[in-house]
Automatic annotation (TrEMBL):
SMART domains: EZ_HEAT. It holds the Pfam family HEAT_2. SUPFAM superfamilies: ARM repeat, Ubiquitin-like. InterPro entries: ARM-like (IPR011989), ARM-type_fold (IPR016024), PBS_lyase_HEAT (IPR004155), Ubiquitin-like_dom (IPR000626), Ubiquitin-like_domsf (IPR029071). Residues 3-63 form the Ubiquitin-like domain. GO terms for molecular function: oxidoreductase activity. This is Ubiquitin-like domain-containing protein.
Length: 389
């Protein structure tokens, strides 16, 4: 005849179990692990109500009630062994334990993200997903934020993907960990962070909040964060977003040149053609101290200006005298693209530039209109620049 046993947790919850006669503590632990919500046997300490020491597995079950204490001691020892299979087993045990292990369990799992054994590290990633899905989402995000900088690139990418699969907009620490990813040196890591941020923006009604959050990062003390935010805006904001463009215009005047470079490129992608505020901003950067900024500004000036915009051509023509070969290249390519579209002013400027350097100008002029040749643009540009420099 089965004997009925009550197990009381420290939280006061009661588990009622039916055990076979002559059952031992090992049998009780197994029954508890199978009862919902189960606690893995490796994490159990079974005590008599009047005792403080855990009972050994071989102890026969003779009482009607026992106490259950959840303990990570044995599992944490497994995580520190030299056997990778044992470490992996420990991680999987903590995953099964779920939210009942609290922060210590999450921290213990996260400590294996840097495991030298790839299988153990991957098991830790899967365990974090499971723990997040069981209600410990923000604690998992915090653990990832703490551990991610120390992890190898492949694990960093996987952790960003974990964030993407479990996080919800508004989770504490979410933006911080994504910006860690956006500033990563490895392209596949920051690409993963971009994609997660873009997916969050597209989910439900999140876009305005995501855009506002990214814009706020444009004022961060760290220039690398400001640059990452400027770049991220092109992923989360819709093209032509006035608030985003206005914020990028301010960033284009940042005191750090690499932030200005990213901001000008972002303006080129975000602003509508003919946007006077955007055109004015990139026009200012044509005389920037940094050649890279000037080159980006030349491209942006052409991209944002309307067809047959004499002001644009005049500004680009001025760049043809720049001391930087890269700036001249950017300006000439922009002029040549407009010449290809049949813009007379652009064709005249390009022809004059090459003529001054002694190169024939293979334009076909017919009835007052002209057609630029893409092949001419590529070939003649490299020769013209060689002469210029």
């Amino acid at each position: 005849m089965a004997c009925r046993v009550e197990v009381v947790t420290l939280a006061g919850n009661m588990i009622e179990l039916n055990l076979e006669p002559q059952s031992t503590v090992a049998d009780l632990r197994q029954a508890i692990s199978l009862a919902g919500p189960g606690v893995p046997a490796e994490c159990q300490r079974i005590l008599r109500n009047s005792a403080l020491e855990p009972l050994p597995d071989a102890e026969p079950i003779e009482e009607r009630q026992y106490r259950l204490v959840v303990s990570l001691d044995a599992v944490c020892k497994d995580l520190e062994t030299g056997d990778p299979e044992q470490r992996k087993k420990g991680v999987e045990t903590l995953s099964r334990l779920g939210s009942k292990g609290g922060l210590p369990a999450i921290s213990a799992v996260a400590s294996r993200l840097q495991d030298v054994n790839h299988g153990v590290a991957r098991a830790a990633i899967h365990a974090l997903i499971s723990l997040a899905e069981q209600g410990s989402r923000e604690d998992v995000i915090a653990a990832i934020r703490k551990r991610m900088p120390e992890c190898p690139p492949g694990i960093r990418q996987a952790l960003i993907e974990v964030i993407g699969s479990v996080a919800q907009w508004g989770d504490t620490g979410l933006v911080d960990v994504l910006f860690q990813g956006l500033q990563d040196d490895e392209p596949f890591v920051w690409m993963a962070a971009w994609e997660v941020l873009a997916e969050l923006a597209e989910s439900g009604d999140n876009r305005p909040a995501v855009v506002q959050t990214v814009i706020a990062r444009l004022a961060h003390d760290d220039g690398s964060v400001r640059a990452a935010a400027a770049d991220a805006l092109t992923w989360v904001a819709e093209a032509g977003d006035r608030q985003a463009v206005a914020a990028l215009v301010q960033s284009s005047r940042d005191y750090l040149s690499f932030v200005r470079t990213v901001a000008v490129e972002a303006i080129m992608e975000m602003a509508q053609c003919g946007d006077p505020e955007a055109i004015e901003a990139v026009s200012e950067r044509l005389t920037d101290d940094c050649p890279m900024v000037r080159g980006k500004a030349a491209k942006a000036m052409s991209r944002l200006s309307e067809d047959d915009d004499d002001r644009c051509i005049a500004a680009l023509a001025a760049c043809l005298g720049d001391e930087s070969r890269e700036v001249v290249k950017a300006a000439f390519e922009a002029i040549a693209e407009r010449a290809d579209r049949g813009e007379k002013h652009a064709m005249a400027v390009a022809a004059e530039y090459l003529k001054q350097r002694g190169w024939a100008v293979p334009f076909m002029m017919t009835g007052g209109s002209g057609i630029g040749c893409a092949h001419w643009r590529c070939e003649s540009f490299s020769m013209a620049c060689a002469c210029h420099v």
